[in-house]
């Protein structure tokens, strides 16, 4: 870890993946310095030899507590060929600042002082070295500015010794004088130094303290090597050695690295001190990213100076980088061994693991490079060095694969040795994997890397759909936000890339405009260039500068083989409105078509079903569509092009191109387009698709003529499952064609037939029912929608068909206007004896007046005597200009529900049932044991009626859903406040009758002259008006007064004390009563749900109350 000292303090909110789980398990509980065995030093390997490297951490920390019991031996000099070495570029070395792992500042002096201070207690042992000499020779060393001198280096198995001369080296080692004929590793010219070392003859650097050994100039032909080291007390140190030749430099580099690795392997001490680990943990806790039970790995690194070839990270760039790779400086050293304060060290720099773009590693020394880049921003490249370079590289790769488990081609470049690529990565932690490839983990990781709040993103996964499971992105979980930002959309799209868990993806209603306006010119690592199988793609483009939306959607369709369907309904907003040919410039398409259609044309993707409803398409989009449709490799199955602004020409061109997919096309939606279709031409084009299953021609215009919109011959070629002709005027020829198709066996697969607002009459509906019926009295599995039609014309024929049982199993007759009440009564009488309808929707039925007693009696008979209805909808409508409800007589009919034994779901909203209707429903709930769902909110059912219904649930163990009456509760509070206002207004009016002066306002109050600003008028709020509670309650309706005064007695509590109560106390009491009843409701519903699932009653009673606003059966949205 290192810290660049020109940067500002950084902050991130993310995971702690680079974590080590056992470092601080006992640190907070005990004051000892015991380190778990998981942090013990293990062997490392030389980078030159491709052998396995350890999975544990390698650190350069502290002194040593053991001695090697080997005898010092001097190897015989090797025969060398002396060549003339080139003169060094500079006699003063490099003046670039170096930063050592955890380093707070670079060492400006030789390592002699730090090493000597850190091991004063062991100085006697150090001078009497008992080790094996590995290599020795002369070199020029420098520790800072003008501190350059010739020294004699001796490398042993435990330390690197530096002496003023060769003679001093042998004397210190207890040997005889050196033979002048003994060759050294080189010669260098002597020069006068500005300051000489005034210390003992030897300078000792322990090998286990070495952090990195590398060539500082990043040049393989350099004759200079640099050794960086750090200890707990002396702090960091750095020394450069200049050798005579390139070969000598490589020999010293290899020997020091090998000896340092061997010394760390034999180290019995923990790899890093407890104080430093505690400091790192506190720094990560301050960053809210400390998770010791996950990946927590600590490495010591050196941040090298940039050579100017790469982008130098600025403070602004670093401020935007947040994720899981933390660069933490070590605490400053002092005589006090306690952990340093956070304020004594530099800032922590964090980089996103999922923003990694470059990773390279040198095969000659310990240097490596990491590059990070946020979208649309330049790359930040870190030039680092560490003895643990192989472990660091493998850890980053492991974490990247853990966060992106399905990525076959990583979005970063790697320049590492082949043996590291082939080495298996460490096993992932024992984390439970879900069936969707941990999509939530990947989304959260991208949000952390992009500095986003992951809890704002809301998505769901649906399995009960075609081509499922389906990933559905919902609007943000913020009240003031309606759209996602570009980075949030990127986080979702890049998390879905390469994920093989989903068969379809839906962005319905989610604006993708932010990505359409975003361009990334700083890098192309996320641009797709090959398929999942590695097959390169070649796709032409109309413009080299493409928005991010095109790249992301192209990658999404390209990298998943299981993905078959993509929905973009209402996700792109056109900048210009108007005529199709003038809506946008040439080439200014929606981006979605340009991104995916070229892949379909060449067979690069398996996506073959597209929902583009609500996106206005331009000429360039049409070109992409026609070009892709002309290729059989696209194997298109479905196109939903509703409300896309298609003209006659576009429709004809597109249908002509789709002929190539006659054997694969299953669905087509052309609804809501301005094109005026010519019926004969449409039938000619549609006859080429014999495998069509879903057809939507709703809200389309057709040319005048007697030709049917779809002929019987064309219809009989299909085995349709859904046919939607809503809001399209059907002539008699089309009715005959549809009835012919319904009578044929080709229509046996039809399950949805939409004929809403098509201008048909009751006679036409009766014809359809006679045609679709196969056996009298046996329901056909078909949902027929015939609402908003002229069903009062020839109404008796429809009633007869219903009475004969010719109806399908599902019938929707919403928003039907009956000019006479007796027609509706006849319909109820026919439904009473019908034995085929299971689902019936009669919502928003409009009568000339409120339903009379006879009609309500027939409705009661329907409730009591029908034996087949399972679901019934009798909801009304309340609008500003009109309302559709049956009236108060329906309350008496609801009591007959106690006799029903088949109805399971009843929806009766917006019928103004009031408290009396609630009381009737409560009596019904005590007797009915078949009803499961009762939707009766928005009926002005106030607290008294709601309490009665909750009390009835105590004896009902089958009801699974009853609304909380949130709308009714708000209406009651609103009504109480209005009566408070009326009472105050009346009191003020009575008080102001005697003075003969005009009343300016009922809430106008004049201050006295002695008060500040007494001559000014101001308007007084409701809370400042004097009001007595009993005066207000006397103006309430009787039911309201009983609610506020006697509800406490009904629930076993003490009655409300009206004498000292204010209106606001009453409102608070009202809210408390509502909350208490809602809690009781949740308890009863939870009890019933658990009983239905087979849980014991004792288990049910022990479970806590529901505290959310969702019903147990409501669908759950997954959020991160």
UniProtKB/TrEMBL annotation:
Domain of life assignment: Eukaryota
Region entry Disordered, spans: 27-51, 106-126, 1045-1064
Membrane-crossing segments per the record: none
UniProt domain LRR-containing protein second PH: residue ranges: 276-426
SUPFAM superfamilies per UniProt: RNI-like
Biased composition (Polar residues): 27-45, 1045-1060
InterPro entries: LRR-containing, LRR_dom_sf, PH_2nd_LRR
One Pfam family in the UniProt entry: PH_2nd_LRR
Compositionally biased residues, Low complexity: 106-115
Protein's UniProt name: RNI-like protein
Highest classification ranks of the organism: Eukaryota, Fungi, Dikarya, Ascomycota, Pezizomycotina
């Amino acid at each position: 870890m290192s810290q660049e000292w020109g940067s500002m303090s950084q902050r991130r909110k993310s995971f702690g993946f680079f974590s080590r789980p056992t470092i601080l398990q006992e640190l907070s509980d005990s004051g000892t310095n015991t380190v778990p065995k998981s942090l013990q030093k293990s062997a490392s390997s030389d980078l030159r030899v491709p052998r396995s490297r350890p999975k544990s951490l390698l650190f350069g920390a502290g002194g040593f507590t053991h001695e090697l019991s080997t005898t010092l031996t001097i190897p015989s000099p090797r025969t060398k060929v002396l060549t003339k070495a080139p003169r060094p570029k500079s006699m003063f070395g490099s003046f670039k600042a170096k930063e050592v792992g955890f380093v707070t500042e670079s060492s400006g002096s030789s390592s002699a002082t730090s090493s000597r201070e850190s091991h004063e207690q062991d100085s006697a042992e150090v001078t009497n070295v008992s080790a094996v000499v590995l290599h020795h020779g002369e070199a020029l060393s420098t520790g800072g500015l003008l501190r350059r001198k010739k020294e004699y280096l001796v490398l042993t198995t435990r330390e690197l010794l530096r002496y003023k001369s060769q003679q001093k080296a042998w004397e210190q080692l207890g040997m005889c004088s050196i033979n002048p004929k003994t060759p050294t590793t080189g010669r260098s010219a002597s020069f006068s130094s500005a300051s000489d070392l005034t210390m003992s003859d030897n300078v000792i650097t322990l090998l286990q303290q070495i952090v990195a050994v590398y060539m500082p100039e990043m040049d393989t032909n350099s004759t200079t090597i640099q050794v960086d080291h750090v200890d707990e007390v002396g702090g960091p140190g750095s020394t450069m050695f200049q050798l005579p030749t390139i070969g000598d430099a490589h020999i010293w580099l290899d020997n020091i690295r090998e000896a340092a690795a061997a010394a760390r392997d034999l180290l019995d001490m923990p790899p890093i001190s407890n104080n430093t680990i505690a400091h790192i943990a506190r720094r990560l806790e301050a960053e809210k990213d400390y998770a010791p039970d996950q990946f927590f790995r600590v490495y010591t690194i050196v941040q090298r100076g940039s050579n100017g070839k790469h982008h130098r990270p600025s403070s602004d760039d670093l401020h935007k980088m947040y994720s899981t790779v933390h660069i933490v400086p070590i605490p400053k050293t002092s005589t006090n061994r306690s952990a340093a304060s956070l304020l004594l060290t530099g800032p922590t720099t964090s980089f996103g693991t999922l923003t990694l773009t470059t990773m390279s590693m040198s095969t000659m020394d310990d240097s490596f490079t990491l590059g990070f880049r946020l979208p649309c921003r330049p790359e930040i490249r870190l030039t680092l060095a560490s003895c643990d370079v192989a472990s660091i590289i493998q850890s980053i790769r492991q974490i990247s694969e853990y966060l992106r488990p399905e990525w076959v081609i990583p979005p970063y470049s790697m320049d590492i040795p082949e043996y590291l690529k082939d080495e298996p990565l460490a096993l992932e932690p024992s984390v439970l994997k879900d069936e969707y490839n941990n999509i939530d983990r990947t989304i959260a990781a991208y949000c952390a890397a992009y500095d986003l709040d992951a809890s704002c993103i809301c998505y769901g996964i649906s399995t009960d759909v075609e081509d499922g499971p389906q990933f559905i992105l919902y609007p943000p979980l913020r009240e003031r936000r309606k759209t996602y930002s570009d980075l949030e959309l990127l986080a979702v799209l890049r998390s879905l890339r390469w994920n093989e868990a989903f068969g379809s993806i839906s962005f319905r209603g989610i604006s993708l405009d932010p990505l359409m306006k975003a361009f990334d010119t700083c890098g192309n690592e996320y641009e797709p260039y090959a398929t999942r199988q590695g097959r390169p793609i070649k796709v032409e483009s109309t413009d080299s500068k493409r928005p991010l939306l095109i790249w992301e959607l192209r990658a999404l369709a390209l990298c998943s083989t299981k993905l078959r369907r993509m929905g973009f309904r209402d996700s792109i907003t056109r900048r210009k409105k108007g005529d199709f040919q003038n809506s946008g410039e040439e080439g200014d398409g929606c981006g979605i078509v340009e991104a995916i259609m070229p892949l379909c044309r060449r067979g690069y993707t398996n996506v073959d079903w597209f929902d583009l409803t609500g996106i206005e398409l331009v000429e360039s989009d049409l070109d992409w569509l026609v070009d892709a449709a002309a290729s059989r490799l696209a194997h298109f199955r479905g196109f939903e092009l509703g409300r896309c602004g298609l003209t006659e020409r576009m429709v004809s061109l597109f249908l002509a191109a789709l002929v190539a997919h006659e054997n694969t096309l299953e669905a087509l939606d052309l609804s809501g387009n301005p094109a005026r279709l010519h019926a004969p031409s449409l039938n000619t084009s549609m006859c080429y698709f014999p495998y069509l299953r879903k057809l939507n021609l709703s809200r389309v215009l057709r040319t005048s003529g007697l030709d049917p919109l779809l002929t019987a011959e064309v219809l009989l070629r299909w085995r349709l499952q859904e046919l939607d002709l809503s809001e399209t005027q059907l002539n008699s020829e089309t009715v005959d064609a549809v009835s012919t198709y319904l009578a044929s066996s080709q229509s046996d697969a039809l399950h949805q037939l939409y004929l809403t607002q098509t201008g048909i009459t009751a006679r036409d509906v009766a014809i359809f029912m006679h045609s679709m019926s196969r056996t009298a009295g046996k329901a056909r599995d078909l949902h027929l929608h015939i609402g908003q039609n002229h069903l009062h014309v020839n109404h008796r024929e429809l009633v007869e068909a219903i009475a004969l049982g010719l109806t399908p199993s599902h019938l929707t007759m919403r928003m039907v206007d009956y000019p006479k009440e007796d027609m509706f009564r006849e319909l109820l009488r026919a439904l009473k004896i019908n034995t085929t309808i299971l689902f019936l929707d009669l919502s928003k039925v409009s009568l000339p007046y409120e339903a009379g007693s006879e009609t309500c009696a027939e409705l009661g008979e329907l409730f009591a005597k029908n034996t087949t209805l399972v679901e019934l909808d009798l909801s009304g409508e309340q609008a500003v200009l009109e309302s559709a409800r049956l009236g108060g007589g329906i309350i008496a009919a609801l009591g007959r529900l106690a006799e029903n034994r088949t109805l399971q779901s009843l929806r009766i909203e917006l019928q103004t049932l009031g408290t009396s209707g609630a009381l009737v429903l409560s009596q019904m709930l005590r007797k009915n044991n078949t009803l499961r769902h009762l939707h009766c909110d928005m009926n002005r059912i106030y607290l008294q009626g709601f309490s009665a219904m909750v009390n009835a649930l105590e004896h009902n163990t089958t009801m699974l859903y009853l609304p909380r009456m949130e709308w009714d509760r708000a209406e009651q509070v609103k009504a109480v406040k209005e009566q408070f206002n009326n009472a105050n207004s009346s009191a003020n009016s009575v008080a102001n009758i005697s003075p003969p002066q005009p009343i300016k306002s009922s809430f106008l109050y004049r201050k006295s002259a002695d008060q500040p600003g007494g001559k000014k008028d101001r308007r007084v709020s409701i809370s400042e008006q004097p009001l007595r509670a009993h005066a207000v309650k006397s103006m309430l309706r009787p039911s309201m007064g009983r609610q506020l005064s006697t509800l406490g007695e009904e629930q076993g509590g003490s009655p409300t004390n009206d004498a000292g109560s204010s209106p606001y106390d009453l409102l608070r009491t009202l809210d408390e009563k509502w909350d208490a009843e809602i809690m009781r409701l949740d308890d009863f519903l939870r009890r019933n749900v658990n009983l239905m699932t087979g849980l014991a009653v004792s288990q049910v009673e022990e479970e806590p109350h529901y505290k959310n606003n969702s019903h147990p059966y409501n669908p759950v949205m997954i959020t991160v």
